[in-house]
């Protein structure tokens, strides 16, 4: 049956010294070729190379010259080769997607490079004078332990660093955030409209990091790479795309990082840092707890983008006044999530028209509102 339905192409291949088959409708093979086929049957493969007929056919085939290739075939081959050479982004040197980067690996990168030029810019604490200094001394939070101040300075120094697209580690951080939030398995360009879908205002995320620097991206990385907070991040991300209550997710996150920086500089987190004998984990948890509280207020009080500035300002006051309360709420929430008992959004579904890009939204952040007191202003 196979011999009857073989292609004409296979018949030609046999004539060139390979396998002979008969296409449907063609004349049957002559006796000579039939006897040649029978001669091969029963011969072990290892002995075929020594068969005189096979060597004769091979010698004849060595003189074979390919026919003329049509222009259509050449064009198709060129197009296929072009497809194989496409890179996932401009300047990519590998076909392999970038590996995800953990928070600890990204942090280690900053711990090993020279940040002296950025460290000169930081102001570790708020400068207070007069009655404000006296009131803070008498009734304010305790000072950060001496052994923790280097770790605090590192946090503030990273907040001075911008996004450098030439640094491979910076690129991996961005791509990891994108993949974890969207579920994509493919790399993305460091510039493009896809960043607006994540809640940046434009095609270049670097332009939205004012006041928080690369620390804002490290906080997002912590949120999506920590198994305890990933579900929370994904739920808040879905809330940010609600057809009525939408907000720019990443831009909101940057503002919360600014609040965390303020709270650290104003020593609002010193008591908790001293208790845990750590700074970076406390700042990370404070950031996550503040984001969780914002999402809860946003959802339950039906806030919209027009309320963003006032919501953030109230959030800043609460976060500085009661950081321990926020941290405890986060602890309870994450414990419930791990048991499948807590959901920020519950059964809420995002129906209706899709949320617009962040560039179409009028968003007011912390830095866009007048400060509530002179102690709240500080240069970045």
From TrEMBL:
InterPro entries the record matches: ELMO_dom, ELMO_domain-containing
PROSITE patterns: ELMO
All residue ranges annotated as the ELMO domain in the record: 169-323
One Pfam family of this chain: ELMO_CED12
Protein known as: ELMO domain-containing protein 3
Gene source species: Myotis brandtii
